[in-house]
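notes to self, project folder thing:

trying the whole complex as one job this time. last attempt i did each chain seperately and stitching them together was a nightmare. two parts in total, labels are on each line so i dont mix them up again. if this works i'll redo the older ones the same way
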Amino acid sequence: MATPAAQLRASTPLPRTRAQISLHRVLGPDYRLGYLFVLPMAILVLALVAYPFGYAIYLSMTKKYVGVPPVWVGLDNYIKLTWDGFFRRAVVNSFVFTFGSVAVKLVLGIAMALVLSSRIRWRSFWTGVLLIPWVAPTVVSALNFLWIYDYSLGVLNYLLVRVFRLLPHGIGWLSEPGTAMGSVIAVNIWRGFPFFGISFLAGMKAIPGELYEAAAVDGAGALQRFFRVTLPGLKNILIIVTLLSTIWTFNDFQIVYILTKGGPGGATQVLPVFTYEIAFGAQRLGEAIAVALYMLPALAAVIIVLARYMRRGQRT
Amino acid sequence: MSRALARRLPDVTAYAFLAVLVVLVVFPFYWMTITALKSETQMRSLTSMFWPDPLVIDNFRHLLRQTDFGAWFKNSVTVAVTSTLLATAIGTVGAYGLARLRFRGRAFMSSAVLITYLVPPSILFIPLYAQIRNLGLADSLAGLIAAYPSFTVPFVTWLLMGYFESIPEELEEAAMIDGASRFGAFARIVLPLAAPGVLAAGLYAFTQAWNEFLYALVFITDVKLRTLPVGLSSFITGDVYGWGFLMAGAVLTTLPVIAAYIYLQKYMVEGLTAGSVKG
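result (full assembly):
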C-alpha cells in the first residue's frame, strides 16, 4: 500500500511527535491536505443536499403552508396520496413518459453510434453537430418545439398538410389529449438521444478490433458481429446510460412545464410538474414534498445500482 | 445486386441514417433562426416559409428595447459565471483529494458525491427554497449562486476524479522525491496536465448553470431578476406575445453555449466520455 513517496515521508528525519505519527496511521498518510481539499465539497453536500433532503422527509410528514410553521401529521400525506386520482394519474403518466422516451433514445442512440463509427467523411464534425441538442439550453429546445407544434402557424402542420399533403387539416399537437403525450415525449427524445449516442460511441471505440477480426474470420456477418461482439461489449455502458437517463427523464420538469403545464386536462401531468403545482399553485408544501418523495424507494434502488456500476466503471 | 454495390451498401445506409439524424437535429435551430429574422406580416401569411422575405432585424430590436431581455441576459451571465468558477474550484481540489490523497473517509465521500450527483432537483427544490428563504436569499441572484453548486460541484468532481486517475501517479512521486510538497506536486505537476479536463468540466458546469430552470423559476419572483430560461419562457404566458421576438431571444440564449461548444468541442466530447461514463 505504501508508495515510495509515503515511505519517504514516514522516514523523513524531521522532528515529529508521537501523536502526529499515530494520527497519520489512523487517518491516513495524506489526511491534512486530504481533509482540506475535500472540506469545501463536504460542507456543500451537507448544506445543499443532505440537510434539505432530511428536511424534506420531515416536511412531507407535516401540514405545511408557505409562511406558516409546519404541523406534524405522520404518514397522512402519503396515505391520502395513495387514494388520490390526480396523483395516480400523474404516476401513470410519469411512467409512460419515462419508458416511452428512454426506449426510443436507446434505439436512436445505438443508430447514432453505429453511423458515427462507420466509414463516413468528417466524422468528428458530424459528431459535433449531432451533440447540439444535448448542449443547447433546454428552454430553447422546448420553445422551438412549442412553435413548431403551433396549430395555425406551426411548421409541422404546414409540412404535413400543405407540403406533403398527408393530412386534410392540421392537428393541435399539444392541445389534443390523444397527441399531447406523444408530442412531449418526442421533444424529450430529441434532446436526450445524443447523450446515448456519444456514450455508446465511446464504448464501441473501447472494444478491441481483434474481436471483430476474429468474428469475421469465423464467418460472422455484420448482424452477428453486432449482436455477438458490439452489444456484449457495450453492456456496462448500456446499463449506466439507461439508468441515468431513466432518473433524468422521470424527473424532467422543464419540457413538460413549458410545452403543456401538464395539460390538456391532465393528459401530460407528470410528477415533477404536479409537485410544483401543489407547492406553488396550491401552496401546500408538505403534500407537495410527499408527492416528490413518494417514488423515493424506487429512485433509491435505481441510484444504488447505478452508483455501483459507475464506480466499477471508473476503477477500470 | 452487383458486388460493387453490395460492398457500398453499408456506406449508403450510414449516410442515409446520418442525413435523417442531421436534419432532425438541425431543423429546429434553422426554424428558430429564420423565424427570428421574419417580419410579423410574413409569419402570419404563411408565405416563403423556409426563408425570411424580407429579412428584418425588427424582432431583435423589439426584444432588446421593449422587454427585460438585456437585464435577464446580464443576470444569467452573473449567475452562471460566478457559480461555475466556484464549482470548478471546489470540484477540482475535491476531485484530486478523492482520486489521489489517502485519508480516512475517502471512499465514503466518493460515494456521497456520486449519489448527490444522481439525486434529482425535483426532490430538492422545495426544501432548498425553504432554506434559501431562511437565509434571506430568496428573490436574489445570490440565492441562485448559492444553490447551483448543489448540482455543478458533484458533476465537476465526478468528471475530474476520472481525469485525475488517468494521470500517472509516478509523475507526482518523482516531483516529491525532488523535494516538492504534496501540494506543490498537485499545483505544479498535476493541475497543468489536467487543464483540458478542468476546462471541459468548467464548460459543462457553465452550460448546466446557464440552462437551469426549476430553481430559477421557484426562487425568483422579481421580473427584473429573472434569468434567461425563466424570462424567455415567461413570454408565452405574458401579455406581450410574439413568436418573432421570442425566437430572437432563443437565438441569443443559444449563442453563448454553442459558441463555447464549437470552440472547445474536442475537449467537451472527450471530457464527457472520459469522466461521466466509462465502461
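what i see at first glance: Residues 83-315 of chain A form a domain with the MetI-like fold fold (CATH 1.10.3720.10).
need to look closer tmrw
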